[in-house]
From TrEMBL:
Keywords: Antibiotic resistance, Cell membrane, Membrane, Transmembrane, Transmembrane helix, Transport
InterPro entries registered for this protein in UniProt: MFS, MFS_dom, MFS_trans_sf
GO annotation, biological process: response to antibiotic
Principal place of residence: membrane
Domain (Major facilitator superfamily (MFS) profile) ranges: 47-504
Protein name as it appears in the record: Transport integral membrane protein
Membrane topology: Multi-pass membrane protein
PROSITE patterns found in the cross-reference section: MFS
Cellular compartments per GO CC: plasma membrane
Database matches in SUPFAM superfamilies: MFS general substrate transporter
Subcellular location as annotated: Cell membrane
Domain of life (superkingdom): Bacteria
Annotated source species: Streptomyces sviceus (strain ATCC 29083 / DSM 924 / JCM 4929 / NBRC 13980 / NCIMB 11184 / NRRL 5439 / UC 5370)
Length: 504
């Protein structure tokens, strides 16, 4: 299927000077008119561009702060633990609200929810950019998380509805995944470039023109839909339970390094109790927020579980890899961003050029396994990066392996997950899939960061040199990341194995 409209040619007789048709005086003109089906093809690919643009803005912002953190800390006077809340304040509402706004999107219309999310996110970005105190920045980041959740929760459901045919859907998912994956790595580059060339405020202010254009395009291009209507209900008690549970879960994960073990366990038990109460509520509610039948799909449940482990690995690599390049190799902000620039290029080229065709030929299950194998190999190679290492020998090769692996695995995993949901559950399935991304990213960031810091502190206490101790801390974290990636591979091989017969 082409991304551009193809016209159909139809001859039309021209009336002669005497008002007569035909004859030797008549001429035949060829007029190009797009057929309705081809106009629809063009419009839905245009809609995909709009969805990708809106998503790219939120994904960029989730990663763009990484390189700018030292500048933000210096300017606003954040402590070490306090600085983490520049990231956490975004992640907690983003992860906690995805299921609720996904369901609300089904009720009020996904276009309305997507456009409203863009507006909230853009306004919040301006507030972040003009923030002059710690409290103002953290509050604005939390509002960004709300807007990000509103857009992210419905976008996959809109994509699946736009492209119901398997081949076209695989191609659309490849494009969308390429934008998402490349956007994450591109955010690291832009964060370094904007911070060094201007200042950290511009990593947020850059969203204003992008957000305005994306919002206007969404209003004009995306098809309006009425949704089921708020009268159908969103099970607000259930929404309160699951939102509280998800926010508390993300809080426990991202704050685990700052709390005592007893406090962390108590908060984790409270989150588990809220999840249990939510599950009981959904089993008994007349109009449940999350239909429990979703988890009866082996594809949907298995793909989400695999994603948690895979994203934990990739997010941990992205965050700690940037710190290794800065703190061990001594790269500046702009050079650090440039060092990670091959990732979005490789991911974008592979996803757009090969992903859909590869999945169409070999099936998503086999492509997913191949991608996970490459991710394992990349993390294993990175775990050997020494204190006296170099970018060309110790960072670039694993970076390329991880990029190729992610480019193969992510579209295949997305397709498997969304194929396990019914049309009426697309919004919820989309919200659930995005929720597990946030949980996985938070888990990877928390676990691997704590491991790296603990190992480094232990070595420093024993008298080790700073650079050597820091490098060994990152090595320990990357080894654990390798184990997490192996877990994702094993889980995918076992749980999603039932797809093999269907793909042959």
């Amino acid at each position: 299927m082409t991304m551009f409209p193809v016209t159909s040619r139809a001859p039309r007789p021209v009336v002669g000077t005497h008002g007569e048709r035909g004859g030797h005086a008549a001429m035949t003109a060829v007029v190009e008119t797009p057929t309705p089906a081809l106009r629809r093809t063009y419009s839905r690919w245009t809609a995909l561009v709009v969805l990708c643009a809106g998503t790219l803005m939120t994904i960029l912002d989730g990663n763009i702060v990484t390189v700018a953190m030292p500048a933000i800390q210096s300017d606003l006077g954040f402590s070490g633990p306090g600085l983490a809340w520049v990231v956490n304040a975004y992640l907690i509402p983003f992860g906690g609200l995805l299921l609720l706004v996904g369901r609300l999107g089904d009720l009020v219309g996904r276009k309305r929810m997507f456009a409203a999310g863009l507006a909230v996110f853009t306004a919040a970005s301006v507030l972040c950019g003009v923030a002059t105190s710690q409290g103002a920045l953290i509050a604005a980041r939390a509002l960004q998380g709300v807007g990000g959740a509103m857009t992210a929760a419905v976008v996959l459901g809109m994509l699946v509805a736009l492209f119901p045919e398997p081949r076209a859907q695989a191609r659309a998912i490849a494009v969308f995944s390429a934008v998402g994956a490349a956007g994450g790595a591109l955010g690291t580059f832009l964060g370094g470039a904007l911070t060094q060339a201007l200042n950290w405020h511009w990593i947020f202010l850059i969203n204003l023109p992008i957000g305005i254009v994306a919002l206007l395009a969404a209003i004009r291009v995306l098809d309006a839909e009425d949704g089921e209507g708020l009268g159908r209900g969103a099970d607000y008690p259930g929404a309160a339970l699951v939102t509280g549970a998800l926010m508390l879960t993300v809080y426990v994960i991202v704050g685990s390094g700052d709390h005592a073990v007893t406090t962390t366990l108590l908060l984790a038990l409270l989150a588990l109790a809220l999840f249990t109460a939510f599950t009981v509520r959904q089993a008994r509610a007349v109009r449940p927020l999350l239909r429990l039948r979703l988890f009866g799909s082996r594809l949907l449940s298995g793909a989400n579980a695999v994603q948690i482990l895979m994203i934990a690995t990739m997010y941990g690599f992205q965050f700690l890899g940037a710190l290794y390049v800065q703190r061990v190799l001594g790269f500046g902000e702009l050079l650090t961003g440039t060092a990670f620039l091959p990732a979005p290029i490789v991911i974008g080229v592979l996803m757009l050029g090969l992903s859909a065709r590869t999945i169409g030929r070999f099936g998503p299950y086999r492509v997913l396994l191949a991608g996970l194998v490459l991710i394992v190999a990349g993390m294993a190679l990175l775990s050997r990066a020494p204190a006296e290492g170099s970018y060309a020998a110790d960072v670039l090769p694993p970076l390329l392996l991880l990029s190729v692996g992610f480019a193969a695995a992510m579209p295949a995993l997305t397709g498997l997950a969304m194929s396990g949901a019914r049309e009426e559950d697309a919004g919820l399935a989309s919200g659930l899939f995005n929720t597990t991304q946030v949980v996985g990213g938070s888990l990877g960031l928390a676990v691997l960061s704590v491991l790296a810091a603990s190992r480094t502190d232990g070595l420093l206490a024993g008298g080790a040199e700073v650079i050597s101790a820091t490098a060994e801390g990152y090595q320990a974290a990357f080894r654990v990341g390798t184990g997490i990636a192996l877990g994702a591979l094993a889980l995918a091989a076992v749980v999603l194995r039932s797809r093999v017969g269907a793909e042959r």
